[in-house]
Amino acid sequence: MKQIEVFEEINAPPDVVWEVLLEFERYPEWNPFVQSIEGTPAEGEQLRVRIQPPGGRGMTFKPEVVALEEQRRLAWVGRLVVPFAFDGYHEFRLEPIDRAQRTRFLQRETFRGALVPVLANQDRLERGFQSMNEAIKERAEARVAASS
Fold this sequence. Notes:
The protein is α+β, with helices and mostly antiparallel strands. It has 4 helices and 8 strands.
């Protein structure tokens, strides 16, 4: 098992960060890591996700949404052909801080399976998570500033 966690503190309330996170159709405008997501964010639904890790090859996969808690959590599981060869559990968590005026945003991936040592480039993925977290911070904070 291998796990990557990247946190970002965002000067925007969770509802604003959640709104940005779920606007999949706008990802090409701002997201340097997850270039596109197609599908409906609802438990049991399958998404089509395109990622571009920094310095790595792009990849498209079709995970299943396994958790959706309004303004708190979105999680999916992706598999490489056969279960347990290479499984990735991806999670976005939003935690309200400072009386819900700010958000602690977590992006986490947990990899399991025999092919993890070969296929999971932790450094590239961590840089990708960080770039996305910084971009969602910038977009959510700009949205709050524009509405003030």
